[in-house]
Amino acid sequence: MEVIKQFELSKEYLESLRQGIEEANIDFIQESLDGVKVADIAAILDELSMSESIYVLRLLEKQLASDILIELDEDNLLKVLPELETAEVASWIELMDSDDGADILSLFGEKEREEVIAEIQDRVKLEQILELLRYEEDTAGGIMAKEFIRANKNWNVIQTINEIRRQAENVEKIYSIYVVNNRLQLLGRVSLKKIILAASETKIEDIFEEDVISVPVHMDQEEVAAVMRKYDLESVPVVNAKNKLVGRITVDDILDVVQEEADEDIQAMAGVSADIEESDSVFTISKARLPWLLIGVIGGLMGAKIIGFFEDGLSKYLALASFIPLVAATGGNVGIQASSLIVQSLASKSAFDDTPLQRFLKGLSVALLNGFVLGGFVFLVVVFLYGFDPIFGITVGSALFCVVLLSSFMGTVTPLVLNRFGINPAIASGPFITTTNDLLGLAVYFGVAMLLLNL
Amino acid sequence: MEVIKQFELSKEYLESLRQGIEEANIDFIQESLDGVKVADIAAILDELSMSESIYVLRLLEKQLASDILIELDEDNLLKVLPELETAEVASWIELMDSDDGADILSLFGEKEREEVIAEIQDRVKLEQILELLRYEEDTAGGIMAKEFIRANKNWNVIQTINEIRRQAENVEKIYSIYVVNNRLQLLGRVSLKKIILAASETKIEDIFEEDVISVPVHMDQEEVAAVMRKYDLESVPVVNAKNKLVGRITVDDILDVVQEEADEDIQAMAGVSADIEESDSVFTISKARLPWLLIGVIGGLMGAKIIGFFEDGLSKYLALASFIPLVAATGGNVGIQASSLIVQSLASKSAFDDTPLQRFLKGLSVALLNGFVLGGFVFLVVVFLYGFDPIFGITVGSALFCVVLLSSFMGTVTPLVLNRFGINPAIASGPFITTTNDLLGLAVYFGVAMLLLNL
Known about the structure:
Chains A, B: One of its GO terms (molecular function) is metal ion binding. By secondary structure, chain A is mainly α.
């Protein structure tokens, strides 16, 4: 018993492991990894080179190697997989849960995938995996596993326990036993606790709960996560259009989904493409950032054109230049606030959501209120603290007011439009929209100034 | 069986429920809510007024009302709780899991809390709750429950099943049975599956797994989430400094933790204080946004001062004004990219993380590379496309280069400093830092211009 066995996970151990690999010190490698948890070994292998990883994997017991393989970082997997023998991968896949096997296979190109599939001997597993590969990656079907315990409603407790025994090796974690009819349609569930506490002859029919929550096989994984979170489910059965039980999703997979979706949103907001980690190379990190920065730079260069267009007015009223950052920054901030609220509400839809018109009116009210407060504040500072003409104060204040309204509108509409087209709406809080808002803000600012200052 | 019973969750039903409440149509209310899931009833009550919510809660069966109470939105709970009778709350708390009871109690003020506690009759539950209230809210102790199944290693399977039977009502979901010694120290776990498949006389000692992962009671909830996610745990035992088993955390609570932490980060990035939903009032939404917008506005006003300081130079070289948005926006974008990477890496610490020096050098390399590319690009556009003097192109390009370096530095350092002081580092990707970067960027831009253009 230990409070997480972390002591091996040191850079010192990593060095000694590397040396062990170089010296082909098989005893040391096997002994030092003995009893270390799968996730920890995977974390170690992620630090090694491709050939070192493979060397260690091949030294480990086959089931363990198979468990580790699916825990490897995707970057690392994509390097390791092509270098393994086809038969080797196939034999490891046979030892995985069907969903993990499908995940591994989906990382291969079409030709290599067919080669691996041809080597899989376990026909049942193979059919399960082939079925899973047919579903879209981000749906319930794409993340479910075929390993679950199914009991016919006419069985008794003893028959059900026998089924558990028969499947014990395949189904690692049992949360619920799903109850089906003769046509394998889902009728309900019975908990393992109830099975333990019931008499052997009790009919499943008499103890199962009917009101089980299931999800359709094509449901988006984010929606599945929302359902499991709302109803505090540890696992959820997946059914097809005919209500036939086709798989189950466990909450540990959902935990990954929630984390990944959150990371994706944050990356979209920060303007970083792809899943970058701090441990990636300088070039990789740079490559993921530069395109978004370039969008901003090109926007800035277009902004220079807009300002250049108003150069005459600017030369007459040089102070206009001073308030450019104020206008641009406020537009950006307002846009991000508005869009992130919409992104959140899109992620947690409810039956009581406002209608689009109500949404629009509420967004408008908030923008009017905030625009009025900020515009008024700026007017006061510009006139009474900075000592400018009142007409100049009115110009800056009302330009700010207009920019708040416009940016709110853009921040509200953009994620809704992106979402309609199946694009991650969180992008609306990122650099692309901020840049657009900057440009619109500049145009509004100078437009208002031309009008009010008679330039 | 249904694919999520959602049909009642319509605005039409809400209206008819409101009418039922007004007409005191108890039969209608009870019948229409019969069989509806706890989370769905809670979602309905969240849409009702405080007095309507309480009216419905009191019509429901006591256990159901207690289950619904803890599922209510916190805003709604804070309105409902003070209006309930002390004895009523106490009797509902008695029916909750200890962690939920502690959560409810922690929402009361000190005086009211004591009053409710005095009314709790169930001494065991009360002691459990009082223990939980002693732990910090965001730690393992603060989110664990006291309901779990504990078996002595000397017991056999029959004795363990009897314990499960005894606790069946208290412990709703059983994932693992935790094995302890006579001093109640955690030794390991045994799965329910193993209990079912073992012979009645089998000793627990002979079938339990020793290498169970546990978390210390003071561990931060985010770290607990990372541990459970890494090792795919559906529940984790919590131990005190003497390794005594004091509670367990289930993955459904962790799912909420992960979602909440992600929402918090996104809100910090977007510059929204407090947990705002689209359904909140105009005033509430505005109040959560205005302070952050004001920070931006005050920054903008300070920016105006900075630019005003360089007014002489600006009047000689008016085109300088045109590139203000370019410099400001790029600084902001670079800062957000750098800080969000650090925030992510802080959330998923690993033993193989780079040292601070390595981090710094890598950040510097990325910034040098990006700064060089962007500065060079801008130089080319400014000189060859826009037709400015080469010396002006060099000014804008090299100012941009400096801004990229500076903003990267700020974006990297700020979250690290915030984190050191126990503040959510995601704030570093929000408006406060963007504003600071804007100001620094302006100062650098004009500083470089003064120097190179001899203004």
